[in-house]
Specification:
This protein is an alpha+beta fold. It has 10 helices and 10 strands. The model has no long low-confidence stretch (mean pLDDT 96).
């Protein structure tokens, strides 16, 4: 079925993204995976190409394009290229909205030009060793010292943790406030007491630096409070729908691409004197996955249109995230199986997709959390 959500402008942008990936990412990606980190040059190249800060106002160097479909194109092409390490989706679609909607004029002038040029790489630090989805469990705290905060605590599993120049830290500013006693504080590279732990060794997405962060009596100026004091809970809930949509978009794009390369593989690979594609079981496997992808794509495209119009609610975003990422996981497993022993070899794209994609059902809210959100909306 031909997709109907994109215009000629979106498709022209898609060609720009593909050209960028072919020139600035794909030739270097194997080395980045060995290094465990992406080159900062790639971030600056993305900035020069206009791929960063798509929704940031033009006065700060952004693309002033609020149409989420451009972000969808970016995510789809990065997913097809297997380039999750250059986390432009995290930068643009998760962290960007915090800066553009919550930042003061002074904060925007200070941070957004570098955000758009690739000189400032960003991260958001919410997860702690003892607190993931449960915001009430956050222990990182900030004490008011007049013109500044004193920040103490630690975070873990922070994407862009090594590279980040600007980290939005979720910290407890009112001890008795539970989830409603949290604020967003912006910690910048070089602040005394801000330390990075090891670059964590993951099973997939090897090029994407993921780190532990430590805060020891970090002096954070009051000017670095992002949004309302004790307002982090509402701020986080407001922006979660877009984060989950971004993950869902990557999920269905990955599933479709895996189906595409596996369909080609079974046409070429022979067993018992004929192509695998001639075996009924193989045809049934491909038919089932193709149908599941088609049905999921129809729902996701509807969610994309609604989100671009500002009409997508948290429940449908949760449905999209749950369904698309679980589909991605199933398709990756089945496609690897259809590749046989070759599917277990790292030089085959399906093996990399299997490990890179496994995190999708975990970050941004686990599948179980998505089901809880949906269930509560239906049953109270």
């Amino acid at each position: 079925m031909k997709r109907q959500i994109f215009t000629e402008e979106h498709e022209a942008f898609r060609e720009t993204v593909r050209t960028f990936l072919a020139k600035e990412v794909t030739p270097h990606y194997e080395q980045w995976e060995k290094d465990g980190i992406v080159s900062r040059d790639a971030w600056r190249a993305a900035g020069r190409q206009g791929l960063l800060g798509l929704a940031v106002p033009e006065e700060y160097g952004g693309g002033r394009e609020s149409d989420f479909r451009y972000s969808v194109v970016l995510s789809e092409e990065f997913t097809r290229a297997g380039a999750a390490g250059l986390a432009v989706g995290l930068h643009n679609d998760i962290i960007g909205p915090y800066l553009t909607t919550l930042g003061t004029d002074e904060q925007k002038r200070r941070w957004l030009p570098g955000f758009c040029s690739g000189e400032i790489i960003t991260a958001i630090a919410m997860t702690e060793p003892g607190a993931g989805s449960d915001l009430q469990g956050i222990r990182t705290s900030a004490q008011d010292h007049g013109d500044h905060w004193i920040l103490n605590g630690s975070k873990t599993f922070i994407s862009n943790g090594i590279l980040a120049d600007l980290v939005i830290v979720v910290a407890r500013t009112t001890p008795e406030g539970r989830a409603h006693g949290l604020s967003l504080l912006v910690v910048e590279r070089g602040m005394e007491g801000f330390e990075r732990g090891r670059n964590l060794d993951k099973i997939g997405q090897k090029a994407q630096d993921t780190a532990e962060l430590f805060f020891h009596d970090v002096r954070v100026p009051k000017e670095n409070l992002l949004g309302e004091l004790n307002g982090a809970f509402i701020h986080l809930m407001t922006h979660l729908a877009q984060e989950r949509m971004g993950i869902a978009v990557a999920g269905i794009a990955a599933a479709e691409h895996l189906l595409e390369i596996t369909s080609q593989y079974v046409k070429e690979r022979e067993a018992f004197g004929r192509p695998l594609a001639k075996l009924q079981h193989i045809r049934f496997e491909i038919a089932e996955m193709a149908t599941e992808c088609a049905v999921t794509r129809a729902f996701l495209d509807r969610c994309i249109v609604d989100h671009s119009a500002g009409e997508l609610d948290a429940v449908h975003a949760s449905m999209a995230k749950w369904w698309a990422t679980e589909l991605q996981k199933r398709v990756a497993d089945r496609c690897l199986q259809l590749h046989g022993g070759y599917g277990y070899m790292t030089e085959y794209r399906v093996a990399k997709a299997f490990t890179d994609g496994r995190i999708q059902t975990i970050y941004g809210g686990t599948t179980e959390i998505m089901k809880e959100i949906i269930g509560r909306s239906l049953l109270g």
